[in-house]
Structure formats: C-alpha cells, structure tokens
Amino acid sequence: MTRVDFYILPEDNRISPLLYAARLVEKAFRRGHQIYVHTLDEAQTRQLSDALWQRPDSILGHSCGQTTEHQPIQVSHQGEPGEHGDVMVNLAGTIPTFFSRFQRVAEIVPGKPESRSQSRDNFRFYKERGYALKTHNI
Questions:
Q1: Architecture field, domain 3-137
Q2: For a FRET experiment, which of 48, 67, 87, 103 has its CA 20 to 30 Å from that of 24?
Q3: Distance in angstroms (rounded) separating the CA atoms of residues 11 and 129
C-alpha cells in the first residue's frame, strides 16, 4: 500500500514549496528512486524544471510533460506518469487519480496557514482510506 508523507513547511515562508520539492527530488534521486513530480500547471512545471537544472551542488536531468523519453525524474501537470511508480511528489494540491500506483507520495504543505486547507483535505482523504501517513515538520 502507498505510504504518504506530509512535509509541513514553516509558517514564516522561508522555504518555498517549489524549492523544497526540488530538495526532495534530489534526495530521492540520490537514493536511487524514480520520481514523478505532479505539478499544478505548465508554469509550475517550467519553474520546477528550472530549479532542477540550477541546483547548487548538482544538475538533475529530467523530462517534462508527456514524453516517450525515459528519465528517472519526470515533471508534469497532465496525464499519467509513464513508467514511474516509485515516488510521487505532489505540488498540484489536489490528489491525482493515479496516486496509488506509487510506493510513496510526498505532499508538500505550504507555509501560509490560509493555503493549508487543501492539504488538510488531502490528509483526511488518505486517512479515511487507510493509507500509512507520516508528517514531517520542516
């Protein structure tokens, strides 16, 4: 069964969800995982893509959108995630219908209290269905 981790960012907004997602992707990649990042829209896909290419200590090669090119990291806001089934980082807010095909799901909880209601709904959704949940206060 899919394990779901909620990464709760600090309320002072010193860490953006996008930059924290890039850190998580790098950590998972270094541990040998294949990662799919589900983004909100094309703009967020491009922003995360840029962040992955500009990591201070490493450049993380990846594919964007629907592609037949296989990369260990895929970033997209549309459709199903190709062959990936290991780790999904969800930046879209809403839970994609295909989340359960992944071994692990990482939900990034924004720092702004007014932006957290969707994350609370997601937590409730997973909990009511019996998924293993873990929270991390960042």
A1: 3-Layer(aba) Sandwich (3.40)
A2: 67
A3: 28
Q: Give 115's DSSP letter.
A: G
H or E element at residue 104: strand 104-109
What is the helix (H) or strand (E) element at residue 134, kind and residue range? strand 132-137
Closest Cα partner for 137 from 4, 2, 11, 3?
A: 11
pLDDT digits (tens, 9 = 90+) for 70-101: 678 899 998 788 777 899 999 999 999 999 99
Residue 73 DSSP code: E
Residue 110 per-residue DSSP state:
P
